[in-house]
Fold this sequence. Notes:
The chain folds into two domains: 1-34; 37-81, no CATH class. Helix content is 46%, strand content 15%. It contains two helices and four strands. The protein has helices at residues 3-34, 73-77, and strands at 37-39, 48-50, 58-60, 69-71. The strands form two sheets. A two-stranded antiparallel ribbon has the order 1-4. It has a two-stranded antiparallel ribbon with strand order 2-3. The protein is rod-shaped, with a radius of gyration of 23 Å. Bound molecules: zinc ion. Zinc ion is lined by residues 40, 42-43, 47, 61, 63-64, 68.
Amino acid sequence: MSILTALATLAIYSTAVAVLVLIAVTTYRLNLKRHPFTDCRRCKGTGERRSRLFAHSFGYCPDCHGSGHKVRAGARLLNIR
Length: 81
Ligand SMILES: [Zn+2]
C-alpha cells in the first residue's frame, strides 16, 4: 500500500467520523431543545422534601424550589433555552 492510498483512506475515514460527530451533536442539541428538563435528583421529581420525623409534613425541595425538575446539564452548558 502506497503512502498516497494510506493518506486517502485516512482522509475518507476522518471525514466520515467528522460527519457522524456532527450528526450526533445536532441530534443531541435538538433533543435538548425539545426536552430541556430532567427530574430533580434530590426529590426524584416530586418537588417536595419529606420530614424524617413527621411523615405527613413536607417542605419544598431546596434544589428545584418545588418544581420537581431541573435544567439538564447539556442545556445549561450549551445555554439552550
Ligand atoms: Zn427537587
